[in-house]
Amino acid sequence: MNKMEIVDNFKALSDETRIRILNLLMIKELCVCELEVLLGLNKSNASRHLNKLNLTDIIKNYKKRQHVYYFVNPDFINRKNFL
Asked: Are 71 and 53 within 8 A, CB to CB?
């Protein structure tokens, strides 16, 4: 992991809402609609935070019918050189 990737990860994790999302996703995968309810977010805000975590490869997603489900990227958890 290069220095810019580390900086991007810290930026993505510097927001309280994104930390809350990550904590929930560590427990189980969730769709946007579930995260909206659990965190009291509107769809736009939830999607913006999820996009930031997704762009840094901290989380991944897949589509199942009309829902997009998010989960923590196992490679992110297993990284030994995060810092």
From this structure: no
Residue 43 token pair: 């769809």
Tally of domains in the chain: 1
Task: Find residue 59's DSSP bridge partners.
Answer: 72
Residue 78 forms part of a structural domain: no
- pLDDT per residue, tens digit, the chain (83 aa), is 788 888 989 999 999 999 999 999 999 999 999 999 999 999 999 999 999 999 999 999 999 999 999 999 999 888 654 54
Burial class (CB in 10 A: 0-12, 13-18, 19+), 12: buried
Place of tokens 């993505």: 12
Angle at 59 between CA 82 and CA 2, to 5 degrees: 30
Q: Give the Cα separation of 69 and 2 in Å (integer).
A: 28
Can you give the residue range of the structural domain that contains 47? 3-73
